[in-house]
Amino acid sequence: MKTDPFLPPATEEIRLVDISAFSGTLQDGIEGNYDFSISDVLKEAWQKTDGVKGTFWGAFIIAFIGIPVGIIVIIIAISLLLGMPVEIFQLILYLVQIVLYIVLLPFIVGIIMIAVRRSVELPVRFSIIFDYFGYTIPIVIAFFLTNLLMIIGLMALIIPGIYLLIAYLFTLPLIVEKNLGPWEAMEASRKAVTHHWFKVFFTIIIMHIIVIISAIPLGIGLIWTLPMIFNVHGILYRIMFGVEAAS
Q1: N or C: which end of the chain has fewer CB within 10 A?
Q2: DSSP letters along 158-218, please?
Q3: Three-class SS of residue 77?
Q4: CA distance 164 to 146
Q5: 63 near 221, Cβ under 8 Å?
Q6: What share of the chain is helix, strand, coil (3-state, %, to 5)?
Q7: In terms of Cα–Cα distance, which of 47, 45, 62, 36 is closest to 197?
Q8: 238 by DSSP, 3-state: which?
Q9: Shortest CA distance to 127 belongs to which of 117, 140, 114?
């Protein structure tokens, strides 16, 4: 895009308009009216990691360390105070692990939405992970449905399961960002991804390889690549479906 050298520097608002030119809509995604370059997505994801690593890592620490550890410590403290038998404590701990996995789903969606917002240069903060508990029921339903179908697909010659693993990639953000029901979001994601399934697949594979390589030197590279992998997710989502808050 050409710029006039006599105009003042671009503002945040102008940048949002420029980005919207590379954004789709829900209908565009479902109909396959989008395209992207793998290298461009990875390059943009790397660039958008700058300035938000602290936001992502704050969200990671709260969601995957702070909350689980806090709940387990509370359970241990209660069991010691009540003199709970070991067998009952182990059973409760097992049930808590299942519940904890469900509770973490809205937090995971929140981290994805940080990346979705970052993809259109909207302000982000780590506390976004607390914003989506109102969607817990549809998120949990969609999570179990997608995993059930993927397991069935993996049992049926493996390939259908791999197809669904990629096809359902955007189900959860579609529920909270487009306010879709679980099955509606699953189908919207599947139909959109299917148009460029191999491109999405290889983008994800390459990004995971980058993450694995970055972990080799004492895991230091993960400081950059873990936020980057979420940014890839957010950018692909924007390209396919657009982001309503940036309109």
Answers
A1: N
A2: SHHHHHHHHHTTTHHHHHHHS---HHHHHHHHHHHHHHTHHHHHHHHHHHHHHHHHHTTTT
A3: helix
A4: 8
A5: no
A6: 75, 0, 25
A7: 36
A8: helix
A9: 114
Alpha carbons within 13 A on the beta-carbon side of 162:
10
Encoded tokens for 246: 């940036």
pLDDT 10s digits, 153-184? 989 888 999 999 999 999 999 999 999 999 99
**Gyration radius from the chain CA atoms:** 20
Decide: residue 9, CB within 10 A, 0-12 exposed, 13-18 middle, 19+ buried: exposed
Q: Which two tokens stand for residue 244?
A: 């309503």
Residue 83: which region, alpha, beta or left (left: phi > 0; alpha: psi -120 to 50)?
left
Distance CA(233)–CA(108), nearest Å, equals 12
Q: Please provide the size of the chain in residues.
A: 247
CA distance 236 to 32: 13
Maximum alpha-carbon separation in the chain: 77
Q: In terms of Cα–Cα distance, which of 169, 186, 154 is closest to 116? A: 169
Q: Which two tokens stand for residue 90?
A: 């182990």
Confidence (pLDDT) at 14: 37
User: Which CB contacts under 8 angstroms, 24+ apart, belong to 171-174?
Assistant: 171/142, 171/146, 172/105, 172/108, 172/109, 172/112, 172/139, 172/142, 172/143, 173/109, 173/112, 173/113, 173/116, 173/233, 173/237, 174/26, 174/241
Mean pLDDT of the chain: 87
